[in-house]
Amino acid sequence: MIPGISSGRRRFSDLSEQEVLALAISNEEDDARIYRQYAERLRADYPASAKVFEEMAVEEDSHRRRLIEAHKRRFGDVIPLIRREHVSGFYARNPVWLIENLGLERIRAEASEMERQAELFYRKAADRSSDAETRKLLGDLAAAEAGHHVLAGELEAKYLGGDEREEEDQAAHRQFVLTWVQPGLAGLMDGSVSTLAPIFATAFATQNTHTTFLVGLAASIGAGISMGFTEAASDDGELSGRGSPVKRGISSGVMTALGGLGHAMPYLIPHFWTATIIAMIVVFAELWSIAWIQNRYMQTPFMRATFQVVLGGALVFAAGALIGAG
């Protein structure tokens, strides 16, 4: 902030008791809205979890009604407009669009953090209140927020008992694999293997590390851009269920570029044979990483994945080295 210019925010310690109550009301309204958005986001794929968030939103509505009654009793019907963003240093909620796109477990974790922050707010607000009844209400709400992990557990037991939780976790894992792992693995394989020939052909043909690095950089970035756009344009995810084309394109493009840059970066070292030996070691690590990912997420037998990837990479490397040496 520039000295002498106000940020436009109030300090929490400067708020009146009426403003603290108004802030609590707006917090509950926002949190109920967030939970309902989570429920709507999850409804199609995780209906049981959607019900959990719907009931948590109903619980926030009950808190809001109790706070409004307290405000009417003490200050009347007109509630000041004050929100989290008006208070300096006050906790902020992450944008819903960011969290809802990060998967079921991330949404659950964010809900838990929301309850923790709400509990802390109510405890501070209770300390500020001079009215016994209001102080009791705020203390009760702090206890309720602290106990929401118990409520969430009860709701999960109600809606996610038996096979439902396992089915939703399996569905979340499957969606993660389809949206992020599968395109990322394809990109890593393409970037690691397809750039071997041009990089090592250039290396052995010129024995110039700077030229080799520039060729590797261009090949890696070009392949990343190409793979990213190709993946994003190949399938909108509506019928296949593979998820957002933007996410898949980012995963594929970034991993393709990284796969090529891994063995291009050693050529920043000016000594040719030192750079080449390090690049070979990096290639070996890349190929084994691909085999591990195939085994871990795609259930490909490790030996078969190793044979396919290492043999393919070795053939491409040999082709590039022979062409460059010739």
Describe the structure.
This protein has helices at 17-42, 47-75, 96-99, 104-128, 132-146, 148-159, 163-194, 196-206, 209-234, 245-264, 272-297, 302-325, and strands spanning 10-11, 87-88. The radius of gyration is 28 Å and the shape is elongated. With 326 residues, it is mainly alpha-helical. It has a two-stranded parallel sheet. It has 2 domains: 10-161, Ferritin (Up-down Bundle), CATH 1.20.1260.10; 167-325, no CATH class. The model is unreliable at 1-6 (pLDDT under 50).
How do the helices and strands line up, and which of them pair or pack?
Elements lengths: L9 E2 L5 H26 L4 H29 L11 E2 L7 H4 L4 H25 L3 H15 L1 H12 L3 H32 L1 H11 L2 H26 L10 H20 L7 H26 L4 H24 L1
Parallel strand pairs: 1-2
Helix pairs in contact: 1-2, 1-4, 2-5, 2-6, 4-5, 7-9, 7-10, 7-11, 7-12, 8-9, 8-12, 9-10, 10-11, 11-12
